[in-house]
Write a structure and sequence with these properties.
Layout (H helix, E strand, L loop, with lengths): L9 E4 L5 H11 L6 H9 L3 E7 L2 E11 L2 E9 L8 H15 L4 E7 L3 H9 L3 E11 L4 E10 L1
Parallel strand pairs: 4-5
Antiparallel strand pairs: 1-2, 2-3, 3-4, 5-7, 6-7
The structure holds coenzyme A.
Length: about 150
């Protein structure tokens, strides 16, 4: 099968004006999405959002939280219609650049044990597994573990 063509995309800040589009992508991309309320709380709570846009259309975003010299990647998503074209990689590189720009020393994240696509992306970008939070995430059938990963900057 031929690979999808790579896309010209721009990374800039995610703002409250993106709320409707963010909700829509969240609902398309996740079985258990953040709610609109979760997203508003995140915007209001001082988390930083990076937007990935193609021709001004929001196609993905990452949300991070800074704690002293640590950055925590809370969410990263590419709209399913735009996946597998290098945009997740582009967005993750932007997160790493932001963390360095803000003088962070370490980037942390948690990922579902079953999320092979995201784990592959993180492994490619030098994240290493540092632990497991047992039964952390709810699923449609019960609960599943979170893999905790770290990348030094
Ligand atoms: C994880 C996610 C952000 C990747 O975005 P993407 O734009 O599709 O990723 P890219 O096209 O940049 O791919 C980067 C690398 O990730 C890996 N990858 C991406 N999708 C994959 C898949 N479905 N299966 C296996 N590996 C995958 C590949 O190694 C790929 O590199 P390669 O194509 O050179 O082999 C996207 O799948 C997504 O939004 N998933 C739903 C939300 C989610 O699970 N977020 C993570 C929460 S922890």
């Amino acid at each position: 099968m031929n690979a999808l063509p790579k896309i010209e995309a721009r990374i800039n800040m995610l703002t409250l004006a993106d709320l409707d589009d963010t909700c829509a992508i969240e609902n398309r991309a996740f079985e258990r999405p953040w709610t609109r309320g979760n997203l508003v709380d995140s915007f209001m709570g001082g988390h930083i959002g990076l937007a990935c846009r193609v021709n001004h259309q929001l196609v993905g975003y990452a949300i991070v939280m800074m704690v002293l010299d640590e950055m925590h990647l809370l969410n990263i998503v590419i709209d399913p219609d735009w996946q597998k074209r290098g945009l997740g990689q582009l967005l993750l590189e932007a997160v790493i650049a932001l963390a360095r720009q803000r003088d962070c020393l370490t980037l942390y994240l948690e990922v579902r044990n079953s999320n092979a696509a995201a784990q592959k992306l993180y492994n490619l970008n030098e994240f290493v597994m540092i632990g497991v939070r047992q039964q952390y995430y709810p699923t449609n059938f019960g609960r599943e573990d979170a893999i905790v990963m770290r990348r030094s900057l």
